[in-house]
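Researcher: Next entry in the queue.
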Amino acid sequence: MDIGLLVLRLAVGLTMAAHGGQKLFGWFGGYGLAGTGGFMESLGFRPGRVQAALAGGAELGGGLLLALGLLTPVGAALVIAVMVVAIVSVHLSKGFFVSNGGFEYNLIIIAAASALAFTGPGAYSLDAVEWVQLSGWLPGVLATLAGLVLGAGALLARRPAPVARQS
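Model: Structure for this entry, 167 residues:
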């Protein structure tokens, strides 16, 4: 079981960290803060660069926490929050399947992060080295709810683009 949790943590965590690196630093073919900030502005997240830094930081930080198995519920909550925002602001209108730009990928990431918050990171983790036991019903529920609330908060803070005035 511990090897399975390690594989899941590394796959989800490093994938999310890489997405954060794209947003923050332009790594792996990403657009960095300037490009991602412009996209965030187009979705109503203002100021765009700040919102891009928050999203990228949540992906990078949450992903690394999951990959390392360190404070796993915190990492899960950060990843869930970003995926909730991505689903509602970009993918929901495109349906379920990722082949049409839908939200299936984001939903799988949410499910995996939530599952890790419930099960814990396993024996091959920094939490296990430090003898930290953050798993079970309560950490799983709290991490999942925190991710949903953080994501909803970000969505509620969106502001539509100002309408250009014609002279």
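Model: The chain has a mean pLDDT of 94.
Researcher: Noted, moving on.
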